[in-house]
Please model this.
Amino acid sequence: MNIKRVMIVGTMIVAMSFGGTAWGKPAAVTLPVAKWSTSASVADKDELLDALNQSSDEELYEALYDGKSLKDIAAENGGNIHKVINLQVAQLTQQLDSRLASGSISREQYTVQKAELRELVTQSVTTAFG
Model:
């Protein structure tokens, strides 16, 4: 079980929104697809499990598989959904920073996308994929 895949499930709505109607403004018409790493650092993995108050990857995977959202998991286990949101926003901000630095997005696209990140992540943590 790869915890990065769990993070991807939790942020799938965000990734889909990059190409959706929320980004239909002229500044963001042609957006490259967000690149997702297939490996998570131990710190990211531990932060996510800690924020959700989960003891293992498997426990988290099973809860997601059962159709629970990240918000549901945090609520049921005394976790902190705000930490989950902050972690995901930080990771996606890093991706945006990298894309800006590499020139794959413009400063205007970066500004538009970054301004909507927290709202999109907040919406995604309430979405169950079951």
